[in-house]
Amino acid sequence: MFLSRYERMIARRYLLPGRGERFIVLVAGFSLGAVMLGVAALVIVMSVMNGFRAELFDKIVGLNGHAVVQGYNGRLPDWRRVAAEAKATPGVTSAVPLIEQPLFATYNGRSEGILVRGMRLEDIRANQQLNAKTLMGSLARVTPGSNRVAIGSRLAEALGASVGSSITIINPQGPSTPMGTMFRSVSYEVAAIFEIGVYDFDKAYVIMPIEDAQTLLLTGDTVGMVEIETDAPDRVGEILAPLADRLGGGAVIQDWRQMNAQLFDALEVERVAMFVVLCIIILVAAFNIASSLIMLVRAKTRDIAILRTMGATRGALLRIFITVGTTIGALGTFAGLLLGFGFLAIRQNVVNVVQLVTGRNLWDPSIRYLTELPSKPDPVEVTVIVLMALLLTFLATLYPAFKAANTDPVQVLRYE
């Protein structure tokens, strides 16, 4: 929309009404503030929701892979063949044999439920999630036959254990004797403590070499599953379809969407619901802009009539009032972007301050699942938010602008 010089001058004058029109300025200020808050709320909430999904995906998939091949009854005897066939499948980047078994751990009279994870030594060394998140000790000390393990930070806190402590892992399914099945207890030294950032993982996982896990669980040369990673997580089903055909009925394949379907579906539903609810804020702001422009038109009716008698066209008045409304919306949108990204930059500090002031833990990892408030702004979503805010404010200006453009100067100035 191109304005002439006098149209720009009048639009600028109407953006800052005179002394007798301070109420209009106040309403316009509220409109700008509402747009700012609506845009900021959308940017913050959508970025946090995207951050949740990205963090959960990175951490869960980083430790559990994009899919797993599981044997029936928790046993996969021919795991070497399965791993080799999986690795040879186009699109598969790694195939890692694993043992996972829920057991109990005790230390100094404390006991906790744990999830023992047995991995090959080379896979422990290559796992970026474990190596990058080691807080104390060294994963290099976790070797087959050493009876050393790595445990999560929350589990170490619950047990009161530290690096060098000797924890006891209890397997209820021990050897059979004439007196019945005996519990099997084995002591392990804590060689490293890690913090993945997902509460459930840090509270339960105990990492050990796969040979030690087989000895503890008395499984012989078998594993529970083969973890698979691909080069395209969103196409994991398509990539692994040939492998499923080759395996036949000997094993079952589950991808990350099936294993975490409820969690990611809930996040998606909440994300859409929050987007719709927060869009209402911007819609209310658009109505505020419309009301402020209607009041401005009413206050400037005489001026509009004089402009018409001086040669101003309906199109000129239409452009002037649309410019006034869209300028308020654009300023509010820009301010909202600054406010939103500013909040995201200090989001964790804000949470900490609120917790300090209220004296309550607002970010309990056992409830929130992650240890910190995540954030991942999506440029496409931010662009959509900006365009939506500008479109709604533009539409809100049309009625007042047409009302001003259709002002009849004869009727207005008849009694002047």
Number of helices: 17
Head-to-tail CA distance between termini: 34 Å
Name the helix and strand elements from N-terminus to C-terminus, one letter apiece: HHEHEEHHEEHEEEEHEHEHEHHHHHHHH
User: What coarse outline follows from CA principal-axis ratios?
Assistant: elongated
Q: Largest beta sheet, briefly?
A: 6 strands, mixed, barrel
C-alpha Rg (nearest Å):
32 Å
Number of domains: 2
Q: What is the average per-residue confidence, as pLDDT, rounded to a whole number?
A: 81
Ranges where pLDDT stays below 50 over 5 or more residues in a row are: none
Give the helix level as a range of percent. Answer: 55-70%
DSSP, total strands: 12
Structural class: alpha+beta
- Give the strand order of the largest sheet, numbering strands 1, 2, ... along the chain: 2-3-10-5-9-6
Q: How much strand content do the residues show?
A: 15-25%
In short:
With about 425 residues, the chain is of the alpha+beta class. It has 17 helices and 12 strands.
Helices and strands in order:
Blueprint lengths: L4 H11 L6 H43 L2 E5 L7 H10 L3 E16 L2 E10 L1 H6 L1 H5 L1 E4 L10 E5 H7 L6 E6 L4 E2 L2 E2 L2 E11 L4 H6 E5 H8 L7 E6 L5 H12 L3 E5 H4 L1 H39 L1 H9 L4 H32 L1 H12 L6 H4 L10 H27 L3 H5 L3
Parallel strand pairs: 3-10, 5-9
Antiparallel strand pairs: 1-11, 1-12, 2-3, 2-6, 2-11, 4-9, 5-10, 6-9, 7-8
Helix pairs in contact: 1-13, 2-11, 2-13, 2-16, 11-13, 11-16, 13-16
Structure write-up:
- The chain is α+β, with helices and mostly antiparallel strands and 416 residues long.
- The protein folds into two domains: 5-58 and 263-413, no CATH class; 77-223, no CATH class.
- It contains 17 helices and twelve strands.
- The chain has helices spanning 5-15, 22-64, 79-88, 121-126, 128-132, 153-159, 199-204, 210-217, 236-247, 256-259, 261-299, 301-309, 314-345, 347-358, 365-368, 379-405, 409-413; strands spanning 67-71, 92-107, 110-119, 134-137, 148-152, 166-171, 176-177, 180-181, 184-194, 205-209, 225-230, 251-255.
- It has a six-stranded mixed barrel.
- A hairpin with a 2-residue loop joins strand 7 and strand 8 (180-181).
- It is elongated and about 110 Å long.
